[in-house]
Design a protein that fits this description.
With 275 residues, the chain is of the alpha/beta class. The chain has helices spanning 11-14, 29-41, 57-70, 82-85, 92-107, 131-148, 176-189, 209-233, 256-270, and strands spanning 4-8, 46-49, 75-78, 112-116, 151-153, 245-250. It has 9 helices and 6 strands.
């Protein structure tokens, strides 16, 4: 029997915040790390990651659902709806009804299904109105998970993410350390032994008022203004991107997906640029 892990979602699952220049889309991320952990524990696992940043739930249904089902997965992870929560026109009951329909389709495959609550990221007072939506979403995910026998990774209650060093510069995506920790949490809930150990940070460096003000100004300039500019223009960062691992790949138990990516680059090089 083929053991196949398929990951669906948006930037959270694509791996944004965990850069790796030799992997597809320049990212690694927690899902890649979970796939590698599975392969180390039990060689033979295959892995596909269909997630693309900025996708709303309706895009995940339209672009990823049928492909995921066709791959006949034995394990599915799904995070969907986080971008919808940030869209002011979203009606949460309607969103959660669509989410449940998606979960029902995935659960019907017979695969083990892993769902995630959403973290209440404390980035700015500007986003406080979204907290009620986030709680509504998380309560819905937990309820739907019980209904369909899914595992819940309760990301909302992982206290380690209160440390700002678990977050990338945009404050909305996990840093490399955040992705590593989440991979460890997922593998632990799947009862798979892993090598990931908690980050030993030490105390945080104190920030004075001047440092905090400069950081706020940089964040607004580099992340918030461009985000709202894209919303006004009706474009997203994922518009021109393809999924990172659209077809299942056999994950090497030693060297993982980085070893596989190196092998693929060598093959392309020896074929004169033809894949």
């Amino acid at each position: 029997m083929v053991r196949r892990y398929v990951a669906l979602g948006d930037s959270f699952t694509e791996g944004v915040g965990d850069p790796h220049r030799h992997l597809p889309n320049g990212l690694r991320g927690w899902a890649d790390r979970v796939a590698e952990g599975l392969a180390r524990a039990e060689p033979g696992w295959e892995y596909a990651n269909l997630a693309v940043r900025s996708k709303r739930l309706r895009h995940i249904v339209a672009e990823q659902l049928d492909q995921a089902i066709a791959l006949k997965p034995t394990l599915i992870t799904l995070y969907a709806g986080g971008n919808d929560i940030m869209d002011l026109g979203t009606r949460m009951p309607v969103l959660m009804d669509a989410y449940e329909q998606l979960v029902a389709r995935l659960a019907a495959t017979g695969a083990q299904l892993v769902l995630f609550t959403g973290y209440d990221v404390q980035v700015s007072a500007l986003l406080k109105p979204l907290r009620r939506r986030n709680r509504f979403y998380n309560d819905g995910v937990r309820r739907i998970a019980r209904r369909y026998g899914a595992i819940v990774v309760d990301y909302a209650n992982l206290g380690e993410y209160a440390d700002r060093r678990m977050w990338s510069a945009d404050r909305l995506h996990m840093s490399k350390a955040g992705h590593k920790h989440l991979a460890a949490v997922v593998l632990a809930q799947l009862e798979v032994e892993h090598r990931f150990t908690p980050k030993d940070w030490g105390p945080r460096d104190p920030r004075g008022l001047a440092g905090w003000s400069a950081e706020q100004a940089g964040w607004l300039r580099d992340w918030v203004v461009p985000l709202f500019g894209r919303k006004i223009r009706g474009i997203t960062l994922g518009d021109s991107l393809a999924p990172r691992w659209p077809e299942p790949v056999r994950v090497p138990p030693k060297g993982g997906l980085r070893k596989l990516a190196r092998k693929q680059r060598r093959q392309i090089g020896t074929s004169g640029g033809r894949p």
